[in-house]
Design goal:
The complex is a heterodimer of chains A (473) and B (216). Chain A has 473 residues and is α/β, with parallel strands linked by helices. Helix content of chain A is 32%, strand content 16%. In chain A, strands 5-4-3-6-7 form a five-stranded parallel sheet. In chain A, strands 17-16-15-18-19 form a five-stranded parallel sheet. In chain A, strands 11-10-9-12 form a four-stranded parallel sheet. Chain B is globular and about 65 Å long. Classes of the chains: A alpha/beta (473), B alpha/beta (216). Chain B: Its EC number is 4.2.1.33.
């Protein structure tokens, strides 16, 4: 019998029952809640007279709507009344049902996918869900994690389970050594460019190979975060010593002897050598350069030394049409050099790239330099209050502000512009976030996805540049 | 949940691939704490010429005449014809809520993004996967003939064109059963409460660190 994949193992460990009709009930260890996708779920519980099955499996924090400017005045001073109501609704729902919440001005507040692992809420071998597609992030720790809709948020609150169907197993193996200036973000953008935005639909993607193993756990989080942009709800990386080390001493991690016992179990969370995958994609690390998206889907990506594609050279009619539409929306010309794209704003943040290593990488590039005078704004938004405190302890905030970037309070911010941080119509933004969809960062806004180092380099130059050239200066 | 058995309705063709859920319902409308009322903002950025705001009366807003749902021949459409990877991106269930609130009952495409596909079933909205060739044929026929109506028969798992062509589609037995009978998932799962408790007591022994850890 063939061995098991990591996904197979996680699935089997959480199978509560297999129904006759082919559906399964799987157990959910952890649910993270935020203000946007939970209010209707709590309302549903109330209407049905139900209570949460397990209070201690949930953690909440507001992130999408919170302002990132000075907010000592608290929730009552959120200017947008609709955002204010949504954040207050999360607060009152958590208070009513007894769910632990890091409220807006708690220093542990932040983006759900930064906070969960940071607190040791996410653990290897656990199942983690959240009403947010980027829940795939937590798979970086060998957890089975995926986004769900609000009906399922309610279902998990009420039953601690999900009705699910097993996904297919896909392996994306990145082998070799990444060049200097090439980061996890470039790796995942390159992967999406290769397999496409629906390349992982129906699959759990395990990211393996020597280049993935060499990444830090934070880099692996960036990779798994964007599994969903390749169509896969689930991204996974096998557990190794780095994973186990990460969870030592975290507030909700097991402590002492229990930690040692857990660590023993976590070591099993790897795919067996003879495991069978339904699909395997192999990528050479040496082929990956710093990436920039030019279009309105994450698969519309090229290396920084490349050019914008020409629809006349595309044989598939639907794809050519997609390129034309994207060029029009983005205000770009076919065959234009990527380094000729001028920028209006720069955004460093989001669940993809707002952790301490991301901020260090950006700070290293801007240190001693100044943001281009042509830029309207360059924002740095840490992923959590604890990341912010750490960055300040290292003096990164000073480096950013001296270079002319704004240093903000934690939240999702300009990744999806539900708070006041947004692009104006027609503005180009170098963004470390995860989606370049039309209107994503603001009505008519034009997003280019890049790594933190590339965003920082673009902030200095005012247009895209190869960060590797700046590093050698 | 709303039942779905058989439906006949006007089809509207949305001819673009990778329609994401940001496009289906832009983020500013996600600030609502309700489940209903998203219909007027379905495809907001494609449908109107201006930037929509939450709680705004959409009646006086300038319409984009090029957008398919603004064409009078597709008024009252309840079957959406779409291209590959429909519903990609964000997990927002507001997307199926908006489609449902607008009046759509079924969406036909060559492929759907996983989370969106799943969310549809929770709201009595039927996503149907047909082959690229079949979808191409439907696009051609819908565009050629005004008032083109499609019949969706969930019991028999077929889509029927006005000319009588029948295209079979797959649907999970469980999801079909829930849609045909309008069943509430939570109620069904709670029938297995003993299984859940048995799993928990076993798991508590195997992985005690996953219990009682999250508290103030």
């Amino acid at each position: 019998m063939a061995g098991k994949t990591l996904y197979d193992k996680l699935w089997e460990a959480h199978l509560v029952r297999q129904n006759e009709d082919g559906s399964s009930l799987i157990y959910i260890d952890r649910q993270i809640l935020h203000e946007v996708t939970s209010p209707q779920a709590f309302e549903g519980l109330r209407l049905a007279g139900r209570k949460p099955w397990r209070i201690d499996a949930n953690l909440a924090t507001p992130d999408h709507n919170v302002p990132t400017t000075e907010r000592a005045g608290g929730v009552d001073e959120i200017v947008d009344p609709v955002s204010r109501i949504q954040v207050k609704t999360l607060d009152s729902n958590c208070d009513d049902f007894g769910i632990v919440e890091f409220k807006m001005n708690d220093n542990r507040q932040g983006i759900v996918h930064v906070v969960g692992p940071e607190q040791g809420m996410t653990l290897p071998g656990s199942t983690v869900v959240c009403g947010d597609s980027h829940t795939s992030t937590h798979g970086a720790f060998g957890a089975l994690a995926h986004g769900i809709g609000t009906s399922e948020v309610e279902h998990v609150l009420a039953t601690q389970c999900l009705i699910a169907k097993k996904m297919k197993n896909m392996l994306v193996s990145v082998d070799g050594e990444l060049g200097a200036g090439v980061t996890a973000k470039d790796v995942v953008l390159h992967i999406i460019g290769v397999i496409g935005t629906a390349g992982g639909t129906g699959c759990a993607i395990e990211f393996g190979g020597s280049a993935i193993r060499s990444l830090s756990v934070e880099g692996r989080m960036t990779i798994c975060n964007m599994a969903i942009e390749a169509g896969a709800r689930v991204g996974l990386v096998a557990v190794d010593d780095k994973t186990i080390e990460y969870f030592k001493g975290r507030p909700f991690s097991p402590q002492g002897e229990l930690f040692d016992k857990a660590a023993q179990a976590w070591k099993e969370l790897v795919s067996d050598a003879d495991a069978q995958f339904d699909r395997v994609v192999e990528i050479r690390a040496e082929d990956i350069k710093p990436q920039v998206t030019w279009g309105t889907s994450p698969e519309m990506v090229v290396a920084v030394d490349g050019t914008v594609p020409n629809p006349e050279k595309e044989s598939d009619a639907v794809k050519a049409d997609g390129i034309r539409r994207a060029l029009k929306y983005m205000g770009l010309n076919a065959d234009q050099k990527i380094t000729d794209i001028k920028l209006d704003r720069v955004f460093i943040g989001s669940c993809t790239n707002s952790r301490i290593e991301d901020l260090r990488a950006a700070a290293e590039v801007v240190k001693g330099r100044k943001v281009a005078s042509t830029l309207k704004q360059a924002l740095v938004v840490p992923g959590s209050g604890l990341v912010k405190a750490q960055a300040e302890a290292e003096g990164l905030d000073k480096i950013f502000t001296e270079a002319g970037l704004e240093w903000r309070e934690p939240g999702c911010s300009m990744c999806l512009a539900m708070n006041p941080d947004k692009l104006g119509p027609g503005e180009h933004c170098a963004s470390t976030s995860n989606r370049n969809f039309e209107g994503r960062q603001g009505f008519g806004g034009r997003t280019h996805l890049v790594s933190p180092a590339m965003a920082a380099a673009a902030a200095i130059a005012g247009h895209f540049v190869d960060v590797r050239d700046m590093m050698s200066q | 949940m709303k039942k779905f058995t058989q439906h006949t309705g006007i089809a509207a063709p949305l001819d673009r691939a990778n329609v994401d859920t940001d496009m289906i319902i832009p983020k500013q409308f996600l600030k609502s704490i309700k489940r209903a009322g998203f219909g007027p903002n379905l495809f907001d950025e494609l449908r109107y010429m201006d930037e929509g705001q939450p709680d705004q009366d959409c009646a006086g807003r300038p319409l984009n005449p090029d957008f398919v749902l603004n064409q009078s021949r597709y008024a009252g459409a309840s079957v959406l014809l779409a291209r590959e990877n429909f519903g990609c991106g964000s997990s927002r269930e507001h997307a199926p809520w908006a489609l449902d609130d607008y009046g759509f009952r079924a969406i036909i495409a060559p492929s759907f993004a996983d989370i969106f596909y799943n969310n549809c079933f929770k709201n009595g909205l039927l996503p149907i996967i047909l082959s690229e060739e079949q979808v191409d044929q439907l696009f051609k026929e819908v565009e050629a003939s005004e008032g083109y109506q499609i019949v969706v028969d969930l019991e028999r798992q077929v889509v029927i064109t006005p000319a009588g062509d029948e295209f079979a589609f797959e649907v999970d037995a469980f999801r079909k059963h829930c849609l045909l009978n309008g069943l509430d998932d939570i109620g069904l799962t709670l029938q297995h409460a003993d299984d859940i408790k048995a799993y928990e007591s076993r798991r508590r022994h195997e992985a005690p660190w996953l219990f009682d850890a999250i508290h103030n």
